[in-house]
């Protein structure tokens, strides 16, 4: 079994926290792992958000770990040993369709840099709007179809003039990526947009298939 060793306990703890949040929405979720050059990249698709979340971690053996596998998120979480700053990589699983279409590794160009506090406020504002408008509906009008339509209206709006849909901001907030004291950068590469923070990234493919139901979840 492959074992990943991180540079410090914070890296292992960060991965554990990310997986715990991700598994709240899908207990059977899979993640794709890529390790090369001393960096581990973990890709996940949080349920209902229609985005890709990316978490990176530093490995202590930069020349010795090469990995590309799709695994169970739950089994990976169980294999994390924070005290010894390591994680056991479980056996591979059949990858979901999204795992074969990942954002590019390079070629990203900055589009905007925004204060973290402003982006957190934007996420909180749209969550509050969804709750308020839901409460204004009569009980018989609060159908799944109506709520999904409302969510699509709200979460398809863009962050300032960046072109990034607010569903990406919501996902970043719910996954704990946003910090008030750290800036948020929006980048683009080909058909992809990316929200990058010190804690992780959210990527969205422009012009992709129509989103599925996106009823918001509280962060």
Question: Quick check: average pLDDT?
Answer: 89
What's the total number of strands? Answer: 11
Shape: globular
Order the strands across the largest sheet as they lie in space: 5-2-3-4-11-10-9-8
Q: Helicity level, as a percent range?
A: 25-40%
Termini, distance in Å?
34 Å
**Beta-strand content bin:** 25-35%
Query: Which structural class matches the secondary elements?
Result: alpha+beta
The residue ranges in which pLDDT falls below 50 over 5 or more consecutive positions are 209-219
What's the helix-strand series?
EHEEEEHEEEHHHEEE
Major sheet: 8 strands, antiparallel
Oligomer: single chain
Give the helix tally: 5
Gyration radius (Cα, Å) is: 18 Å
List keywords for this structure.
single chain, 219 residues, alpha+beta, eight-stranded antiparallel beta sheet, three-stranded antiparallel beta sheet, 5 helices, globular
């Amino acid at each position: 079994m492959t074992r990943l060793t991180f540079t410090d306990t914070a890296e292992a703890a960060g991965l554990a926290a990310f997986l715990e949040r991700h598994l709240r929405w899908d207990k059977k979720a899979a993640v794709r792992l890529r390790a090369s050059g001393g960096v581990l990249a973990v890709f996940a698709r949080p349920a209902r958000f229609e985005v890709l979340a990316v978490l990176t971690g530093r490995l202590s053996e930069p020349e010795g770990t090469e990995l590309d596998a799709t695994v169970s998120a739950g089994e990976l979480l169980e294999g994390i040993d924070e005290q010894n700053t390591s994680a056991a990589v479980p056996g591979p699983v059949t990858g979901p369709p999204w795992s074969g279409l990942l954002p590019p590794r390079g070629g990203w160009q900055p589009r905007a840099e925004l204060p973290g506090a402003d982006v957190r406020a934007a996420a909180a504002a749209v969550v509050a709007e969804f709750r308020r408008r839901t409460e204004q509906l009569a009980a018989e009008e609060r159908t799944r179809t109506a709520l999904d339509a409302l969510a699509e209206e709200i979460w398809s709006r863009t962050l300032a003039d960046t072109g990034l849909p607010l569903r990406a901001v919501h996902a970043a907030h719910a996954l704990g990526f946003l910090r008030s004291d750290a800036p948020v950068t929006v980048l683009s590469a080909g058909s992809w947009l990316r929200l990058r923070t010190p804690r992780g990234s959210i990527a969205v493919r422009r012009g992709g298939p129509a989103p599925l139901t996106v009823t918001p979840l509280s962060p």
